[in-house]
Structures are given as C-alpha cells and as structure tokens.
Amino acid sequence: MSMCIENLSNEILFEIFDYLDGYDIYKAFSNLNIRLENLLISSSLSMKIEISSNTIFDFHYKQFLKSNKHHIISFDIDSQSTLDKFMNLFIIDSLFSHLESLVLNSISTYKLLIIRFYLKSLPYLSSLSICLNNCSHDLGDIYQIIFHLSLKYFRVAVPRHP
C-alpha cells in the first residue's frame, strides 16, 4: 500500500503545517490539487511566519501576506532592518486578527515605543518576546507597554553594559 500526502487527513496535514513556515506551506502546497488548495484557504489553517534578513519581499510574498493576514498566528522577525522593511509594506494591526505571538529580535527601544500603539490593536496577542539591541530609553517605558497588553507570556532581553 503506497502512501500519498493527498491521502492524509486534514488534521494530520495541519499538524505537519504547524512545523513549517507559512510561506513555505503556501509555495509547496498551493496549486497541487483542489483539496489542498481548499485546505490553504480554510478558516482552520493557522500560519507561523519567520521573516529574516534573507526574506525577499517580492510581489508573490507581499500578495501572500496580504491575502493571509487572518491565518497568521505568529511572526518571528530577526532584526530591526527586517522589521523596517516589513513595516514599509504592512502595519502589524488589527487586520492580523489572529496574531497570538510576536518575536522581535535585535530591535531598538525607540522602534518598540513606535510600534506599541499597533500592539494594542491585536485582540489575541498573548505572547511577546523582545530582544533589544540597545537600551537608549528607560526600561519603565517598555514595561508600561506590557502592562497595557493582556499577555500570558512576556520576555525581554536587554544587552549588558560593559
């Protein structure tokens, strides 16, 4: 008996998808067949997105993000320059209606203070992990952000001063 990916149940496919980047899922499974195409537009699909300095914001990637805002539950952004590129195209706001987790690496306190207003508009945000690349502002400002959000998990990494 041969096993085909098309024979797997939706539940097993969703479990597999949970380990993959959302855009990789889209590239690998869209246009394969009607069932998988319907699965990709299913309201049950949740996507995790990793955006790195190697991410190319070409037409297809921008279209993917635009049409899948409601599927994205997690963003992991590797640097402030990557966040800047992303935010030139999109604002992390209430249109990312299912965003639960946000990881921001190597970000300045200044940039964090700018995006704090957008974070308030995310109804399901429950996890925020921040790695600061400097500490140019009072950390009290950072903690004020947290107290105004309904988070279950918060982590901040602050660079050590010599």
Automatic annotation (TrEMBL):
Which protein is depicted?
F-box domain-containing protein
* Organism expressing this protein natively: Rotaria magnacalcarata
UniProt xrefs under InterPro entries = F-box_dom
Give every F-box domain span.
Answer: 2-49
